[in-house]
């Protein structure tokens, strides 16, 4: 089957769905390809900075309908028990990807986006047009292709992206729990080889998501043993796990998480969200960055399709410039923190410094957050 559209989005996560809603708001014909069904859980910290709220309101997205938790405070604890507390810049909210992605997918469909469950098998760029093929024998011709396929995908391999050739040491684990935890707090707790984020999402559920160096993790036979022998050496985490009930059959995991630098445009495809660059979760702002990148790309694509941007070369240049302006510094800080946390002595020095000068932690977090995202009609 053959289809022709104005824009094609590969990947239906947070960035892809936001871009779909934005572009269909202006009447463009959009197809979004997503390999998985909605709703589904994803490995994610599930905290979003309030910087996205003005943009969501502009899109007609009412987050309050999902009854998220309202998060205003941050607590960071070291393995030795030192705790640093502070207020979050702008504040934020906690919402599960299970709930949010499904909600956004329904919004996109209501706006006129066609969402197809399928897998992209080939992408060609011929005579200033993309021809995209799928596993179910769909052929889509489009002027614009947007990559929103997440942290790591078979599409990255097909495009022969540089970062995909580099083995990554990071593994992430996530699950929801029932237990006692403050509604307004996001906790970041250090343990050997990694750290853990804890915060409430909707329905009073606790989202626990941690990142660990695979070299540390592989010494243990399973997640349960690793958590009991390593993660729970942090007494804050021990108390949370011992007094909480697991709501999943088992925790979700994802491996080969790469914080290497990526290009915002690859073979004329505009990359958004984690596809364009993954910020270290310690910075706690990956979801807001995904949403913001979708806004930047969608605005420029709209201008291009309406002939306000005269050429593809100009479109790609403008998008790369905007991406770097808004995210390069944040990603650099994230990569720096990633390297420090893998070096035990440097990590220990950083944590000691934060213990002596606790006001530095909010400053680091602030460097990874942006201003409220506003887009006028």
Q: Characteristics of this structure?
A:
34% helix; 17 strands; 9-stranded mixed β-sheet; FAD/NAD(P)-binding domain; 8-stranded mixed β-sheet; alpha/beta; 11 helices; 377 residues
Structure write-up:
- 34% of the residues lie in helices and 29% in strands.
- The chain has 377 residues and is α/β, with parallel strands linked by helices.
- The chain has a domain at 2-45 and 96-166 and 260-339: FAD/NAD(P)-binding domain (3-Layer(bba) Sandwich), CATH 3.50.50.
- The longest helix has 31 residues, at 312-342.
- The radius of gyration is 20 Å and the shape is globular.
- The relative contact order is 0.18.
Low-pLDDT residue spans:
none
Supply the helix-strand structural class: alpha/beta
Q: What fold name goes in the CATH topology slot of the domain at 2-45 and 96-166 and 260-339?
A: FAD/NAD(P)-binding domain
Mind describing the biggest β-sheet?
Answer: 9 strands, mixed
What's a concise summary of this model?
With 377 residues, the chain is α/β, with parallel strands linked by helices.
């Amino acid at each position: 089957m053959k289809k022709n559209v104005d824009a094609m989005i590969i990947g239906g996560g947070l960035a892809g769905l936001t871009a779909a809603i934005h572009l269909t708001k202006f009447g463009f014909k959009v197809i979004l390809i997503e390999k998985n069904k909605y709703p589904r859980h994803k490995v994610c910290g599930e905290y979003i900075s309030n910087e996205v709220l003005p943009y969501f309101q502009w899109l007609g997205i009412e987050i309050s309908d999902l009854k998220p938790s309202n998060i205003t405070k941050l607590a960071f604890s070291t393995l030795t028990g030192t705790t640093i507390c502070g207020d979050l810049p702008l504040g934020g909210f906690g919402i599960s990807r299970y709930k949010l992605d499904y909600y956004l997918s329904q919004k996109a469909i209501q706006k006129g986006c066609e969402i197809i469950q399928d897998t992209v098998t080939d992408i060609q760029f011929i005579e200033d047009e993309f021809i995209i093929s799928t596993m179910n024998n769909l052929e889509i011709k489009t002027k614009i292709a947007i990559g929103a396929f997440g942290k790591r995908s078979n599409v990255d391999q097909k495009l022969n992206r540089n970062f995909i050739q580099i083995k990554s040491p990071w593994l992430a684990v996530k699950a929801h729990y029932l237990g006692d935890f403050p509604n307004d707090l996001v906790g970041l707790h250090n343990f050997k080889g990694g750290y853990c984020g804890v915060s409430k999402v909707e329905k009073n559920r606790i989202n626990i998501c941690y990142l660990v160096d695979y070299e540390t993790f592989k010494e243990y036979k399973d997640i349960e043993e690793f958590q009991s022998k390593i993660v729970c050496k942090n007494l804050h985490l021990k108390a949370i796990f011992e007094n909480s009930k697991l709501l999943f059959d088992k925790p979700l995991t994802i491996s080969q998480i790469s914080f290497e630098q990526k290009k915002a445009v690859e073979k004329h495809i505009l990359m958004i969200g984690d596809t364009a660059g993954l910020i270290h979760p310690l910075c706690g702002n990956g979801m807001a960055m995904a949403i913001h990148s979708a806004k930047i790309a969608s605005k420029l694509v709209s201008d291009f399709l309406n002939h306000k941007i005269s050429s593809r070369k100009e479109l790609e240049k403008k998008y790369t410039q905007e991406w770097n302006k808004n995210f390069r510094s944040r990603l650099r800080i994230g990569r720096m923190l990633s390297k420090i946390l893998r070096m035990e002595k440097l990590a220990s020095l950083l944590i000691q410094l934060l213990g002596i000068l606790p006001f530095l932690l909010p400053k680091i977090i602030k460097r990874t957050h942006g201003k409220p995202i506003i887009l006028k009609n």
